[in-house]
Amino acid sequence: YSNLLSLLLFFSNIRYDLFSLEITCNSPRISNGSFRPQRTLYHDGDLIRILCDSGFTFEPDNGEKVVECTRNGWSPSPKCVTLGGKCGLPPVVENGDILDSPKPIYFPSETVTYQCQNFYTMEGSPRVTCQNGHWSQPPTCRVACTANEEDMRVRNIKLRWSNRDKIYSEDGTTVEFVCLRGYKPHPNTRSLRANCVDGKFDYPDSMEEKHYGDRGNT
């Protein structure tokens, strides 16, 4: 009887050890793509989303583009393969939006159109085209300039054609200022106009009229 009890305890311990083994998966290695979320170790049932580079697509495409950690490893096995002339998601344009509803795959010669967000100016063509598995050069959205009251006050200037204390100016445009009462343009200031370049104004400077005649003695 004691031998039988020992055997039962032995096999029950084996059964317990088998069921207590933890199923884990290491981070997958994916050529031409990446995945989210990124961790060093995953557990049974964990899901990751596959993000293939432009010109590549997830295979096999299960619609969700996700794989699961199982006792046999990642299922299905994640892999990014070439589109064969087709394109993936259009490139991201900072401070810009796609007018069309984006698709996961585009065929050759298909196009998408971009627009810049408010106060940004587009440089380049608003339309990109899928060509040989790659997108043509996307546009850039250049930041606008802000002329605000604080920047103008420290220079003793104000907007010439506006009573507002702040304006937004698109890249490449020109804004004209005037000196406040009791001030004149600084001798080093060539013009009271300023161009908006890469989101910044090159503001003109001024100085008090009572010091204007002493500028040669400073």
UniProtKB/TrEMBL annotation:
One biological process term in Gene Ontology: complement activation
CDD domains, alphabetized: CCP
Keywords: Disulfide bond, Signal, Sushi
Domain Sushi residues, every copy: 23-82, 85-143
Protein name: Sushi domain-containing protein
Organism, as annotated: Pseudonaja textilis
Tree of life domain: Eukaryota
GO molecular function: complement component C3b binding
Signal peptide from the UniProt entry: 1-20
Disulfide bond keyword on record: yes
The keyword Signal belongs to this UniProt entry's keyword annotation: yes
